[in-house]
Structure formats: structure tokens, C-alpha cells
Amino acid sequence: MQYRRNGVITLDNENSYFSKPDDRGVRYYQSNNTDGVQVVKRKKSNSLLNSLIVFAGIIIAVIILGVSCNNMINSGEQEIRLPSSDYIAVVYVEGSISRSNFDSWGSPYGYQHSWTLNEIDRLIKDSNNRGMMLFVDSPGGGVYESDELYYKVKEYQRITGRPVYVSMASMAASGGYYISAPADKIYANRNCWTGSIGVTIGTLVDVSEFLSNYGIRTTTIASGRNKSMGNYFEVLTQEQNDILQALVDEAYDQFITIIAYERGMDIERVREISDGRIYTARQALELELIDAIGGFGDALDSMKRENNLLHCEVVDIRHRHRSLLSNLLGSVNLGNINVRGDAAAVLDLLEKQNRSPVSYLCEVLAHF
Q1: Which of 10, 232, 273, 304 would you label with 334, given CA atoms 20 to 30 Å apart?
Q2: Helices (H) and strands (E) in the chain, counts
Q3: Phi then psi for 152, rounded to 5 degrees?
Q4: 229 has a pLDDT exceeding 70
Q5: What is the rounded average pLDDT for all residues in the chain?
Q6: What's the Rg (C-alpha) of the chain?
Q7: CA–CA separation, 136 vs 90, rounded Å?
Q8: Contacts of 135 (CB under 8 A, 6+ apart)
């Protein structure tokens, strides 16, 4: 039992008590031992320390859970459960059409190329699938990946004979338009930006003069005069410029040939309007690059009505990518942890720039 006397808490033992807190929140414990010697102990308030310990424990637990979830997600791609009755599949193509969309923690984000191709293969084999809608919200991407997805859509059409519609969201530029071209009908949101029909190999930069200002000299060992072309330590020769331009021109000819064939347009007319510019939905409609202006619901309703699919369920084929760990820590940019000099920072930026592959990419929209 304990009782209070003049602000002091007294225990059963009359010789032992806790004092009331002083102005620093400290209590004192006093007791007389059997030898009559008085013992005084301090009992500090540990509320802040305890709170920090609890908080640290929670963070550690969350990280462990995040790592576990991250490992489970990355250990194998998810598979969408498909209905056992008739359905329309909506395949989402969001973000850059690339096979390397991974964050600093190794978790996939945005469009996943191999996964998307595999899911379309499943749709091809599934007799319950009655049609496919592509929901495109992309600035484009790699020439190889865009062409592979284009051919997968064509394979779906050829094998199944089922309808393919496209719903363009905020943007379906360059490679985003490339993959849309074979659709039976293309709808674009009224605020959609599309077009940007063209090819880029990125910007090649010569920094040799910049390096000389820092007293840096470089030597490139190569087997031929064009083996190291694009190296930003050397000036690009006219011959090398012509070689790279030929790569771009061939990919460009492939692009406009596909548009002319899929949209039933004269190839010279396509070439005339394919100077890389971005078109609004209304401009694209006037140029016959799309079939109608409308949202996703308009495209879906049209697809159902025009193909006797009103009874069909709608299933989203969308990669659910972010793990718990990357959700918590994905905003941390590991590349910015080290403090580096101006020269090193500039060179890092230029190295990333020079790694750009030949692509069907709208560079302006890629930053949105």
C-alpha cells in the first residue's frame, strides 16, 4: 500500500518513499537499509528515450516486412486471374515502353514489357476472351520494344480475329502511337497529345574542350575509326554523323510505312505530317490519325456495341508493381548520396544522355 503525505508518495515501509518530481521531472527514491544507512536513488523520466526505441523498432519491423514483400514480388511476376465467362481485356500501357523500368531498390514500376507480352499471349489462348482494349498513356519508348508490342497486337488479331480498340489518355506519342496504329478503332481523350511521329538517337555531346579546362586528356583505343563514334570525348565526324542518321532514317521509314498501311493512308501524306510534331486530339482526328475523340468509357461502349459484346465483363490487365519497401523508400535517390565535384556531376549527366538508344520517344512528354 502507498499513500501521499505533503506531496511525497510513501510506501508500506515508512522508511522508503518516492519524492514528488522536481522542476526537471526527476523523482528521488529514499530508503533506510537495515544498517540505518540512508540510500538515495534518482529515477529519471525516460519517456523520450522509450519513444525513440519504440519508433526505431517500428522502422526496423517495417523495413524487414518491406524487404520480405519486395522479395516476394520480385521473385515472380504476378498473374492476373481471368474470368471463366466472356470478357474484354483492358491492357494498360503506361509510361515509357521499355524493358528496364526499375527503381533504385530493384522494384519494377510503370510499363513492364515482358510481362505485358506474356499477358497478351494468355489472352490469345483464352477462348473466354472476346476482345482487347489498349489503354495507352505513354510518351513512347525504344524502337525494339515498341515494334515487339506492335507485332504482339498484330499476332493477337491474326490468331483470334477478335477486335482491338485503343483508348488514348493524356498522351500517346511516338511509340505510344506506333503500338496503337493496328487497332480497329482509336479513341483519344480530348486533352490527349499524340503524334510525335519520328525517331531520335538522343543528343551526342563533345566535352573534350570541357575536360581540357580541367587538365584531363583522354585516349580511346578502338579497332576502327568509327568503332568509338558517339564517344563524348571526341568530335563526331561527318562520316559518323551520316552513319547514325542512316540508322534513324531506316527506323523512321519503318514507322511511317506502318502508319500508312494500318491507317490506309498515302505514304507521302504520312511522311508530310510526320515531322516529329505533337498533335492535339482534334488535329489528329482531322489528319485521320485517330477515329474519334472520347474518353475510356466512350471507347469501351463503342467496342461493345459494334462487336456484340454488351454481355462481357471487363478485366484490367495492369501490372501491380510497387512493393512496400519501394513505396516507403523509393523516393530516395541513391545516386545523390555522395557529394561530388562539378566536373564529375557534369560527366555523369552526359553519360546518361549518351546512353539513349534509338527510340520512338517524344522527349518533351517523357519528362511529364
Answers
A1: 232
A2: 12, 15
A3: -70, -40
A4: yes
A5: 80
A6: 32
A7: 10
A8: 90, 91, 92, 93, 94, 167, 169, 296
Q: Which of 286, 289, 292, 303 is nearest to 190 (CA)?
A: 292
Residues sharing a CB contact under 8 Å with residue 255, sequence separation 6 or more, in sequence order: 178, 197, 198, 199, 274, 360
3-class SS at 6? coil
**CB atoms closer than 10 angstroms to residue 146:** 27
What are the DSSP calls for 203-268, one per residue?
A: -----HHHHHHTT-------SSTTTTTT-TTSPPPHHHHHHHHHHHHHHHHHHHHHHHHHHT--HH
Please give the backbone phi and psi of residue 121, each rounded to the nearest 5 degrees, phi first.
Answer: -60, -40
Rounded to whole angstroms, what are the CA distances from 261 to 50, 64, 165, 285?
A: 70, 53, 17, 17
Average pLDDT over residues 140-157: 96
CA-wise closest residue to 210 among 244, 240, 235: 235
Phi (first) and psi of residue 68, to 5 degrees? -65, -45
229-248 as b/e: b if 16+ CB within 10 A:
bbbbbbebeeebeeebeeeb
Q: Bridge partners of 32?
A: 38
Domains and CATH numbers, the chain: 3-45 (no CATH), 77-332+340-366 (3.90.226.10)
DSSP, res 91 = E
CB 105 within 8 Å of CB 325? yes
User: Is 227 assigned a catalytic role?
Assistant: yes
Average pLDDT in the 17-33 region?
59
Q: Alpha-carbon distance 87 to 107, whole Å? A: 30
Question: What pLDDT, in 10s, does the model give residues 245-299?
Answer: 999 999 999 999 999 999 999 999 999 999 999 999 999 999 999 999 999 999 9
pLDDT of residue 303 exceeding 60, the answer is: yes
Average pLDDT over residues 302-319: 97
Question: Any catalytic annotation for residue 359?
Answer: no
Residues present in the chain in total: 368
From 174, 196, 323, 359, active-site residue: 174
Whole-prediction pTM value? 0.72
Choosing from 20, 41, 43, 227, which is the catalytic residue?
A: 227
**Beta bridge pairs of residue 202:** none
